[in-house]
Amino acid sequence: MKTLTRCCIWAATIVSFVSAQDANITLVPAAIGFEGDNTGFVYGATPRLVVNDGSAADGGFRAFSFSNGTTLAETSHKRTGRSKIAVPVYGIGGRDLIVNIPAPDSLIRIFDAATGEKVVSNDKKQLGDWSTACVWRSQKSGESYIFLFGKKMVVQFLIRGKEEGVEILEVQTFPVAIEGESCSVVSDDRIFFSAEDQPLYSFQALETTHAPEIQVVSEKVEVAGLATYRSTSSDYLLVAHDEVIDVYDSSIQMEGTIALSGIADLSIEGGLSILQSPSTGYPSGVIVFAFEGADDTGVAIGSLEDALAPLGVELNNQYTPPTESCESCGSTITEQCSYNGFNDGTKCSCFTGFTGSDCSNTTCSNDCSDQGECVGPNVCQCHDGWTGPNCSFIAVKPKYETEANGGDGDDPAIWIHPTRPDQSRIITTTKSEQGEGFGVFDLQGKLLQQLRAEEPNNVDIIYNFTVGNRTVDLAYAACRGDNTLCLVQINSTGVLSEISGGVQSLPEDYEPYGSCNYRSQISGKEYLFVNNKEAQYLQYELTATANGTLQTTLVREFQGGSGGQVEGCVADEGAGYVFIGEEPSGIWRYEAEPDGSDTGVQFAQVGDESGLHADVEGLTLVPARSGPNGYIMVSSQGISAYFIYERAPPHEYIGTFTIVNNEEKGIDHVSNTDGITAVSNALNNDFPSGLIVTHDDANELSGSISLPATQHDSAASSSYWFSHLLTTTENKQYSLIANYIVLPNNLMSVRTSLLDVNNTETYWQTAKVVSLEGNSILDNGQLSIKGAEFELSSSAKDNIGTMVSAGSTDDFGYHLTVQATSRVILNAGTGIFKWGANDTTQWSLPSCQTSGTLSIGNSSYTIDGEQSLSWYDRQYGDSLPDRGFTWFGVQFPGSDVRASIWFWDSKDPEQHISFGTVRTDFGLKLVRHTVTVYEDEAWTSPRSNATYQTKWLLEFDNGDYLHIQNVRKDQEIYSENTLVASAFATVEGKFCGQESGFAIVDFMPSTV
Q: Between residues 630 and 920, which one has the greater pLDDT?
């Protein structure tokens, strides 16, 4: 930081001034059911509100329009990944934009604010944990800049139009004293920022590569949100906190306070924004912010009609942000500096990543650590085995990934089996409502058990603890749901169960946030550490009564860290230490005995030479087999990397690694990481030297999942199902279904149907069993199923990337090439679910590009590849459900939302299945639903006498719904052994931000 100036006059004014006039705003929870932090308005004839979505499953951002005087209508939902940053930027390249930075990959994404379409950009990646952003447009040059606030730092970007897209360049990064959680820009180019329980700061926005002078405006003002109102004569700074908004003039003198009412137990989560122009139901403008209340979370809205005038603030409904180029402005970003720096008239001051007298050369941090090449401004292309911003991270590929379990996982632990290490278990915590509690997995990541608990967070293992007359292993966590310490027992096979005294209360108003355990080598006693967000640590002794009931006794309290939020901790029982992670600051060591010193030692600091980055999250200890050596591993959430330090003081830094894609196994890299655990025990052939398990926030693997080529021969029922939606170059539209089922004895069942979508009288179908020619798998692993009349083959070894589907019937023929362009939908999140008596494996590959030819009678057609697509579904298993099923493949044109939705109603309660698997650009999400069948819309086949449903209402557990209706009632694929209808259907409703689309429906009736 260049300087830190205390503005005593401003501070005194804020503290001492008493407002003589107050006003009131009645709030309405206008959009609820998601986690927002930041909001921003897009001005225009139809104003829109942009709000980030910070949830794990639906993260990204949402856009809303005004529908009436009390609610907002969601117009789009971009699932780009858990995000805090979604900020409007005006007038870039002739259009308004939305800038979004998802936490999972930190890739800056640009969207057209009017259309919602993604805009081509230079794919700038900015690793870090970002909280808020403010946009400043220079009144001198007309250039636009984004100030991005993170952990005690601010990054300044230039954003400008370039050819058909947008370019974002880093200008500079400078330190600040806090993590800015809210910010606002006023007309004299000052940027104010603050955070909860922190001072109000400001700095002057300038076109320079020199760090600005940071001013302390006040150390006593409370801030949960900041916004600026631009009246006709001056600006006013609005400061939201508690249940009020304080209004200050441009000299930072308080004009009054606006009381907020209408929402019980209101908590302002941030994102205060103002729309000054009129809108539906709000002729004088509105304020909005992200909130949490007694009943809802989301966005609250309130009218400014009677709020500002009583405070002497003149309304300005004509204000709109500047969007046009500044004709009288003169930019200092000139050709003399290659447009990559500022020109002060004598020399160039280059942006980050550029160098040379004219800023024409690119440079990279630490010369890419000699493990890569500099290919752009601070952009390294790393050699194999290395990754990270400057190629200093060791790239580690994962061996396995746990099956999907709940919405918001956090922390893992490894339980080692006492006699059979290959039967050891991974125990995880889920703190979201979906999947809430503990999960137990085997060493290949298969979910074995779920045990409900009240939002457990960190989890640790306690071995050989005496309970009455027996010895047990325990899993321990702090439970946020009921503010308790929660313990469960682990039996000899790794199964969790409740134990008497397993819920231990904490002091009133104490909200736990992190935890770990420690067994004293001096006394043999077991201790439980727990902390809250304020870093108040409580240390309890864990004991048990004679009858086997657990109990705890508080033996110590101390304050950890330097005042920042803490969470992760781990004990070194051999050395008598407990290590804690202070999220914004670094790693501390404390004595772990109850009579130990309460003064800690910080041995790693965020921003030090190791490159440790906030948030510091999980910690784990890997001791040597004997002696004081070993390693401390720490997860850095902001950059999803893991830092290694020596176990023994002074805990020297060793190196950094991160988890990268294992595309051969279909496992993605780790993103937005949280907890970590590791052991050095030999467990099995996969892990002969130990195991590391870490939290991953989202599935992001690009491309298709590669599956073993011989899977189709491994089960009695092995099906390849293609739903081709074809448009010919003559603009004729057909729905072609081709189902290939491999049978024993070198036979294949083929069922096909062809429907003219726009002609209710034209429909053909066939079903037959054919003999195969030769092997169905070539020596190189490629699929090659061929008969006299049909072909199913692949030109890609993964048997996914490129497929050929071809056939000839008495009525029609086809030869189609299907090219994967999207990512696999693993049904049920893992691709495996119960299907009759046994499991089935099923996945879908939607939106495949399709080309080729189609012949009907004597007419031949060429397929328009730009207007055609295919769904490719793969299923294999050894049984069928005992009653009929319905499957919906749902797609929304122009959207990345695609869903594979299953429903069947079995006589066996465990087989009553209703679930959907949604694939977006962000990842997979499971949704539950109920189904209403419109019996009066059913159709009975005159050939088979089977009854088929043709219209359904699907209602999802998040409030979404879909009406699905077949376009016609005669799409049966008839054979003596199996009856199924495969239909093309319309889709209307509300689903993942989409309203209309189409579906492929497969329906097997339960009775004939």
A: 630
User: Where do the domains of the chain lie, and which CATH numbers do they carry?
Assistant: 4-311 (2.120.10.30), 397-694 (2.120.10.30), 703-880 (2.40.370.10), 881-1008 (2.40.370.10)
Read out DSSP for 408-470? -EEEEEEEPPSS-GGG-EEEEEE-SSTT-EEEEE-TT--EEEEE--SSEEEEEEEEEEEETTE
Strand-pairing partners, residue 767, are: 751
Residues 890 and 900: their CA atoms lie apart, in Å, by: 6
C-alpha 376/C-alpha 626 separation (Å) is: 47
Residue owning tokens 């209403």: 932
pLDDT at 705: 25
DSSP label at residue 121:
B
- From the number of C-beta atoms within 10 Å of its C-beta (0-12, 13-18, 19+), residue 666 rates as buried
Residue of 250, 304, 248, 299 whose CA lies nearest to 275: 304
Outline where 51-123 has alpha helix (H).
none
Where b means 16+ CB within 10 Å and e means fewer, 18-37 reads: eeeeebebebbbbbbebbbb
**CA 53, 59, 65: angle at the middle one, nearest 5?**
45
Structure tokens at 826: 């693993």
Contact 822, 922 (CB under 8 A): no
Going by C-alpha positions, the residue among 844, 829, 954 that lies closest to residue 889 is 844
Contact 680, 690 (CB under 8 A): yes
CA contacts within 13 A on the Cβ side of 474: 31
Largest CA distance in the chain: 93
Q: Which residues pair with 153 in a beta bridge?
A: 175
Give the H or E element holding residue 950: none
DSSP 526-570: EEEEEE-TT-EEEEEEEEE-TTS-EEEEEEEEEE-TTSS-EEEEE
Instruction: Summarize pLDDT for 28-57 with one digit per residue, the tens.
Output: 998 888 889 999 999 998 899 999 998 876
In whole angstroms, what is the distance from residue 203 CA to residue 194 CA? 12
Tokens describing residue 149: 């606030």
666: left (phi over 0), alpha (psi -120 to 50) or beta: left
Alpha-carbon torsion, ordered 795, 797, 803, 809, to 10 deg: 80
Q: What backbone phi and psi angles, to 5 degrees, belong to 446?
A: -80, 130
pLDDT per residue over 136-187, tens digit each? 999 999 999 999 999 899 999 999 999 889 999 999 999 999 999 999 999 9
Q: Which are the contacts of 50, defined by CB distance < 8 A and separation ≥ 6? A: 39, 40, 41, 42, 61, 62, 63, 86, 87, 88, 98, 113
pLDDT higher than threshold 60 for residue 781: no
In this prediction, residue 700 carries a pLDDT of 56
Task: Return the higher-pLDDT residue of 773 and 696.
Answer: 696
- Find out whether the peptide bond into 650 is cis, omega within 30 degrees of 0: yes
Residues in the chain: 1008
DSSP for 679-717?
E-S--SSS-TT-EEEE--------SPPP--TTGGGSSSE
Cα(773)–Cα(834) distance, integer angstroms: 33
Span 287-327, pLDDT tens digits:
999 999 988 889 999 999 989 999 999 999 999 998 766 77
Bridge partners of residue 808, in order along the sequence: 813
Q: Which residues contact 327 (CB under 8 A, 6 or more apart)?
A: none
The answer to whether the beta carbons of residues 289 and 16 sit under 8 Å apart is no
Query: Going by C-beta distance under 8 Å and a sequence separation of 6 or more, which residues neighbour residue 377?
Result: 169, 170, 340, 351, 352, 353, 354, 362, 363
Rg of the chain over Cα atoms, rounded to whole angstroms, equals: 31
Exposed e or buried b per residue across 359-369, where buried means at least 16 C-beta atoms within 10 angstroms of its C-beta: beebebbeebb
